[in-house]
Amino acid sequence: MVDISASAVKELRERTGVGMMDCKAALAETGGNVEKAIDYLREKGIAKAAKKASRAAKDGRIFSYIHNTYKIGTLVEISSETDFVAKTDEFNELGKEIAMHIAAANPYYLKPEDVPEEDIEREKAIYRQQLLDEGKPEDRIDKIIEGKIRKFYELTCLVEQAYIRDTDKKIKDLVVENIAKLGENIVIRRYARFAIGE
Predict the structure, then answer these.
(1) Is the model's pLDDT at 90 over the cut of 90?
(2) Residue 148's closest CA among 180, 124, 114, 178?
(3) Angle in degrees, 0-180, between the axes of helices 138-156 and 117-133, rounded to the nearest 10
(4) Is the per-residue pLDDT at 173 higher than 80?
């Protein structure tokens, strides 16, 4: 197993715009060689997808999903750059999958940036008290809390959640794969989930 340095990950991120986990995976795949990792990411289409993410997505569609019990339903707005991509089978499949995922996984927020600061502070206070009660050393508590907040995002934020059909993948990874495949930026704009009695 090659030891991947933080500086190599940082350099690869800066040069490609790709997320940290994809950078680590690419460096692991190429023995820690940054140049080869760039080629690897380009071959996979991930680097290209990250560059496209800065482009304006002003078209798209609204997707819906109603569970077969008729007690849970979702609406989700997903944007693309053009109407052409919005009409493709791949884009429509992505929209249906995300609408169904929302029904099953019940995210509270779209992305980490949407979580109100007071909610994060409340979570941190709870974790801090739990860790103190467990007798964890003071100097390690902040680091542990960081990890717990990341886990909190993975449970509550749609784009950070593990995709219900493939838990090795996050929803944001599913979106990036489709950006690479379709050649346009794709953005989940907003969603609503309705459940009888909630």
Answers:
(1) yes
(2) 124
(3) 130
(4) yes
What lies within 8 Å, CB to CB, of 33 at 6+ separation is 27
CB under 8 Å to 186, separation ≥6 — which residues? 57, 60, 78, 79, 80, 85, 91, 94, 175, 178, 179
What's the CA gap between 45 and 34, in Å, rounded?
Answer: 16
pTM of the entire predicted model: 0.69
Could you tell me which residues come within 8 angstroms of residue 92 by beta carbon, excluding any fewer than 6 positions away?
61, 63
Looking at residue 11, its amino acid is E
Buried b (16+ CB within 10 A) or exposed e, 24-63: bbbbeebeeebeebbebbeebbbbbbbebeeeebebbbeb
* Radius of gyration (C-alpha) of the chain in whole angstroms: 19
